[in-house]
Amino acid sequence: VIYNYSKCERVPLLRNITSLSARFIDYRWELLPVFLESCPNLKSVSLGFCKSRGEQPESISLGPHCFLQRLEYVEIVKPIVDDEAEMGLVSYFLENSTILKKLTLFLHPSRKNQESLFLRNLLTIPRLSSSCQVVVSDYHF
């Protein structure tokens, strides 16, 4: 559904969606914020990603955001291995979700040696919700 809309088209308001599970076959998530903001009653999001070899991720649009006012739970279930793209996605949820309770991330096994740097960077991201718990776990295939 997300790919059916260009940056010029308006995504219709989807008031009845409270839970969303989305899987991306690549990192083309530039319209994800627009889509999420069209779901004003969204409480739970589960995202998964699969990257093609050599593909570079798109960054999330940093334009004006509507706050995700009802979003309580975010889970990124497929490990992202690109630090900049991953931090952009995590920042988007932490900085724009007013009552986020829990953000769960799964690290790719190849990142074990970079885990402390990743966690330090994660701690520097400002949070709109002061009660948000961030859980980082190993991804098991």
TrEMBL record:
It holds the Pfam family FBD. It comes from the Eukaryota. The lineage of its organism: Eukaryota, Viridiplantae, Streptophyta, Embryophyta, Tracheophyta. PANTHER family: F-BOX/RNI SUPERFAMILY PROTEIN-RELATED (PTHR31900), PROTEIN WITH RNI-LIKE_FBD-LIKE DOMAIN (PTHR31900:SF33). Signal peptide: none annotated. It comes from Thlaspi arvense. SMART domains: FBD (SM00579). This is FBD domain-containing protein. Residues 65-137 form the FBD domain.
